[in-house]
Design brief:
single chain; mainly alpha; elongated
């Protein structure tokens, strides 16, 4: 079962050229697979193509959510403008006591 969810308007992706083009291409894929399914019927090969197409459609739908979240995150970061100063001075040696160096393994310090 292939669902067409890309003819809808008002989603957050329509303003981005690449994502709008992706929606058009995915819509074309859905139409082609539906046509092939009508021509070849319910064979194992067609079922595989339909399942793959549904997975791609689902992934693109998730992209809508991801892009909305990324846009919100980007807007939040850009609006805050807060700068964090990181000192160039060395940390106190006790700060790193009992910590293993990544990739080297544990070293016992006396």
């Amino acid at each position: 079962m292939i669902h067409d969810t890309f003819g809808q308007t008002g989603d957050s992706l329509t303003g981005t050229t690449e994502l709008a083009e992706l929606h058009e291409l995915i819509g074309g894929l859905r139409r082609c697979v539906s046509s092939l399914q009508a021509h070849y019927g319910d064979s194992p090969a067609m079922r595989r193509v339909v399942i793959d197409t549904d997975r791609i459609l689902g992934d693109v739908e998730l992209l809508n959510t991801d892009v909305s979240e990324l846009d919100l995150t980007r807007a939040t970061v850009q609006q805050s403008g807060e700068k964090i100063t990181i000192p160039d001075t060395d940390y106190d040696r006790d700060f790193w006591r009992d910590v293993d160096h990544e990739g080297v393994g544990g070293h016992s310090r006396s």
